[in-house]
């Protein structure tokens, strides 16, 4: 099964994806992770991406699509996949449909986490990141045991450039102008499901599991 999570930055897509990976053995294809891996390895595509991420702007479609295609080639067709952060506009949506069709696959379930902009700003502006471990904390809702230090490695926590308030505002603007219209594209396909993203993570996960089960049952009819 191929599942797509859509939502503004900070809507909880990553949190829900991790739970699905742990409990349902999904493979997580996150453009954020793919970008960071390419940046870390300083690949040709990664170097092109850096300036866009720093500005909170969308990476050009041709670069994003290429990165995702390369990552998807490494995944078995028998593996269930969660797409997180891709596609981000209708053009990318069509590109993903084309890529999946070439694999004799499709998107089986699309989930949109709806969260207000004010909530997003509060969530992201308090976020702290451990570069080595990859752990993410929040100064209010998920603080580290020792202020400014990662619980696992003890390394210093930092605020990512894309989590600064001015960049968050730019990212939200990009979402509403570019990604939100993608919802209309999927509504026409009839497999878009909207979820209230300001509920507790447990409530959201329960809703996702129910939708997942319904989707699988309908495919087995």
Overall 3D form: globular
Structural class: alpha/beta
- Span of the ends, CA to CA: 15 Å
Helix content: 40-55%
The low-pLDDT segments are: none
* Number of DSSP-assigned strands: 7
Beta-strand proportion: 5-15%
Number of helix segments?
A: 8
* Rounded radius of gyration (Å): 17 Å
Largest sheet: 5 strands, parallel
The secondary-structure element order is EHEHHHEHEHEEHEH
Average residue-wise pLDDT: 89
Using brief descriptors, characterize the structure shown.
single chain, 221 residues, alpha/beta, five-stranded parallel sheet, two-stranded antiparallel ribbon, 7 strands, 14% strand, globular
Can you describe this structure?
This protein has 221 residues and is of the alpha/beta class. The strands form two sheets. A five-stranded parallel sheet has the order 2-3-1-4-7, sandwiched between helices. Helix 6 packs across helix 7. The longest helix is centred in the C-terminal third of the chain and has 25 residues. It is globular, with a radius of gyration of 17 Å. It starts with a strand and ends with a helix. The mean pLDDT is 89.
Briefly characterize the structure:
The protein is 52% helix and 14% strand. The protein has 221 residues and is an alpha/beta fold.
Write the layout of secondary structure elements.
Layout: E1 2-6, H1 13-24, E2 27-30, H2 31-41, H3 44-55, H4 61-73, E3 81-84, H5 90-102, E4 109-114, H6 117-125, E5 127-129, E6 136-138, H7 165-189, E7 192-196, H8 201-219
Parallel strand pairs: 1-3, 1-4, 2-3, 4-7
Antiparallel strand pairs: 5-6
Helix pairs in contact: 2-3, 4-5, 6-7
